[in-house]
């Protein structure tokens, strides 16, 4: 079989065998509805309770502060809309950043059409917000600060502790989209003064279609999904039992293996970055050199376009992603790359390679052997390259 | 997403390169939008005897450039002027809807190179009177 190298762990991860093993009985013999009073239901309910505890433990929360959702996007929607509408009597102002995931950005845009005011903080060239910008954006009407822990494209980690401190002092609710950070950074919601936090299972070797929202006890929030009394009346709908069981197991594994995971992916990621920087000219690293997710590498190759790069790599079995406009179906490159102040030309040539637990050193060697050739082939075809190639590398 | 034909022309593009002392050169698109095509023509006695291209862009931009060069090579100038973006799409066994603009760009690159040839030789070419090589090939509002 053709060699295949998966370097798109930020898009999704394969499920771990231990997670699948834990889930399987809940599709068949342990299929009960957790709301049922009989033994089938109680068995299911117990499994959910255990998962809730596993998840709570992994972020330093209490079990009754964890609410399962249909994924990270639902958690973001719920947190932002739920807080906005529950606190409308206090104010209508929300602060976020220009580089949030679309689940946050489009939710904020929706609220703007419904009487809320949103401040989108700028980021610096590495993708970090300026704490003073945040301080000066807070006003009497501010009810929510929603800022991602780490960015999905460039991997930049925000100064969450400082933001949490400010939010606490100013008594503004603080929501964090930690979908990318969870399982890659040790997170304690109390140390960081986080009031709400969105999580997703499929980024941490768990199943797709299951996520969670951490809601600090005492935080007033409206429901997003109305109906039955599941999730302490806050999130209706019969629970995704196998998904919840899988998420609990994945969270427990992520927590247990955190140090080893970080070490493993970081070594490979650093080797990848170093190798590319040495072998390829006219390339830059997008995102912060230090404050970045351990498995994230994001390059901008000048004179070539990201989609043709992805296609070429795909032909070699290498899977990555790009912020190029041509991969998104829109005219503009990713809002994240544009917010860094990159020119359109540079942003079009971006390539994100994200490393995970199953990545091997041989995988990285293969990429280091093939990627420079692919870049060179495309550059030889590019009219932008001919203008610079005379003489220098 | 792409037909085998598109992938073939993307992975093995025909006629890549430049022509020294070309009789006509056309460049369309811009880096901001993520695609630029540059086309070089060698024309003898009104016949396109050689054609080369360079393209910065996505897979379909490279594939449409490549097949467009194949479609006009050996043709007369008048025949090449008949090349439509639709013919390019058909020759590639189709393109995804959001990539149709690449075929428009390929047609414009050919016309732009022919316009350059006509100007250099003080020729009037039927079909190029209204051609504007700077026209937005995306056919929708520029967002930047």
TrEMBL record, chain A:
The keyword Cell division does not apply. Its cofactor is pyridoxal 5'-phosphate. InterPro entries: Aminotrans_V_dom (IPR000192), Aminotrans_V_PyrdxlP_BS (IPR020578), Cys_deSase_IscS (IPR010240), Cys_deSase_NifS_bac/arc (IPR017772), Cysteine_dSase (IPR016454), PyrdxlP-dep_Trfase (IPR015424), PyrdxlP-dep_Trfase_major (IPR015421), PyrdxlP-dep_Trfase_small (IPR015422). GO terms for molecular function: 2 iron, 2 sulfur cluster binding; cysteine desulfurase activity; metal ion binding; pyridoxal phosphate binding. GO terms for biological process: [2Fe-2S] cluster assembly; amino acid metabolic process. It catalyses: (sulfur carrier)-H + L-cysteine = (sulfur carrier)-SH + L-alanine. Pathway: Cofactor biosynthesis; iron-sulfur cluster biosynthesis. SUPFAM superfamilies: PLP-dependent transferases (SSF53383). It is found in: Cytoplasm. The active site is at residue 326. [2Fe-2S] cluster binds at residue 326. Residues 5-367 form the Aminotransferase class V domain. Keywords: 2Fe-2S, Cytoplasm, Iron, Iron-sulfur, Metal-binding, Pyridoxal phosphate, Transferase. The keyword Nuclease does not apply. The modification N6-(pyridoxal phosphate)lysine is found at residue 203. GO terms for cellular component: L-cysteine desulfurase complex. It comes from the Bacteria. Master enzyme that delivers sulfur to a number of partners involved in Fe-S cluster assembly, tRNA modification or cofactor biosynthesis. Catalyzes the removal of elemental sulfur atoms from cysteine to produce alanine. Functions as a sulfur delivery protein for Fe-S cluster synthesis onto IscU, an Fe-S scaffold assembly protein, as well as other S acceptor proteins. Belongs to the class-V pyridoxal-phosphate-dependent aminotransferase family. NifS/IscS subfamily. This is Cysteine desulfurase IscS.
UniProtKB/TrEMBL annotation, chain B:
CDD domains: IscU_like. InterPro entries: NIF_FeS_clus_asmbl_NifU-like (IPR017787), NIF_FeS_clus_asmbl_NifU_N (IPR002871). Residues 1-122 form the NIF system FeS cluster assembly NifU N-terminal domain. GO terms for biological process: iron-sulfur cluster assembly. GO terms for molecular function: iron ion binding; iron-sulfur cluster binding. This is Nitrogen fixation protein NifU. It comes from Geosporobacter subterraneus DSM 17957. The lineage of its organism: Bacteria, Bacillati, Bacillota, Clostridia, Peptostreptococcales.
């Amino acid at each position: 079989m053709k060699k295949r190298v998966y370097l798109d762990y930020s898009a999704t991860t394969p499920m771990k065998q231990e997670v699948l093993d834990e889930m399987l009985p809940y599709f068949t013999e342990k299929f009960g509805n957790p709301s049922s009073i009989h033994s089938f239901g109680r068995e299911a309910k117990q499994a959910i309770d255990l998962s809730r505890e596993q998840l709570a433990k992994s972020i330093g929360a209490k079990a009754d502060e964890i609410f399962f959702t249909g994924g990270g996007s639902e958690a973001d929607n719920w947190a932002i809309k739920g807080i906005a509408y529950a606190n409308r009597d206090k104010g209508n102002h929300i602060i976020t950043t220009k580089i949030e995931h679309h689940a946050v950005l489009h939710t904020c845009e929706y609220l703007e059409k419904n009487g809320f005011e949103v401040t989108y903080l700028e980021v610096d060239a590495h993708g970090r917000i300026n704490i003073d910008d945040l301080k000066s954006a807070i006003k009497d009407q501010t009810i929510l600060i929603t800022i991602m822990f780490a960015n999905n494209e460039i991997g930049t980690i925000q100064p969450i502790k400082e933001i949490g401190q400010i939010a606490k002092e100013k008594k503004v609710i603080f929501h964090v989209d930690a979908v990318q950070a969870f399982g890659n950074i040790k997170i304690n919601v109390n140390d960081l003064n986080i009031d709400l936090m969105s999580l997703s299972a499929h980024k941490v070797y768990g199943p797709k279609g299951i996520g969670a929202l951490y809601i600090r006890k005492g935080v007033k929030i409206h429901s997003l999904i109305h109906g039955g009394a599941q999730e302490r009346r806050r999130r209706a709908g019969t629970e995704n039992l196998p998904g919840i069981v899988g998420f609990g197991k994945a969270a427990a594994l992520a927590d247990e293996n955190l140090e080893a995971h970080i070490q493993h992916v970081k070594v490979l990621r650093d080797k990848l970055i170093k190798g590319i920087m040495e072998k390829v000219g006219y390339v830059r690293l997008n995102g912060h050199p230090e404050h970045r997710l351990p498995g994230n590498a994001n390059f901008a190759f000048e004179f070539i376009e990201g989609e043709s790069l992805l296609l070429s790599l795909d032909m070699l079995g290498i899977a990555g992603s790009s912020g190029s406009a041509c991969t998104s179906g829109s005219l503009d490159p990713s809002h994240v790359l544009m917010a860094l102040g990159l020119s359109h030309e540079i942003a079009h040539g971006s390539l994100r390679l994200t490393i995970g637990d199953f990545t091997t050193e041989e995988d990285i060697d293969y990429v280091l052997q093939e990627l420079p050739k692919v870049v060179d082939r495309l550059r030889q075809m590019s009219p932008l390259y001919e203008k610079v190639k005379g003489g220098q590398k | 997403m792409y037909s085998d034909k598109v992938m073939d022309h993307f992975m093995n593009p025909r006629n890549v390169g430049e022509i020294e002392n070309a009789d006509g050169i056309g460049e369309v698109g811009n880096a901001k939008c993520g695609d630029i095509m540059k086309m070089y023509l060698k024309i003898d006695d009104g016949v396109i005897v050689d054609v080369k291209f360079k393209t910065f862009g996505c897979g379909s931009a490279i594939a449409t450039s490549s097949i467009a060069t194949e479609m006009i090579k050996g043709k007369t100038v008048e025949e090449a002027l008949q090349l439509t973006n639709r013919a390019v799409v058909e020759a590639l066994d189709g393109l995804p809807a959001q990539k149709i603009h690449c075929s428009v760009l390929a047609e414009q690159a050919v016309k732009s190179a022919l316009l350059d040839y006509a100007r250099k030789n003080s020729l009037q070419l039927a079909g190029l009177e209204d051609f504007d090589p700077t026209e937005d090939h995306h056919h929708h509002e520029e967002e930047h």
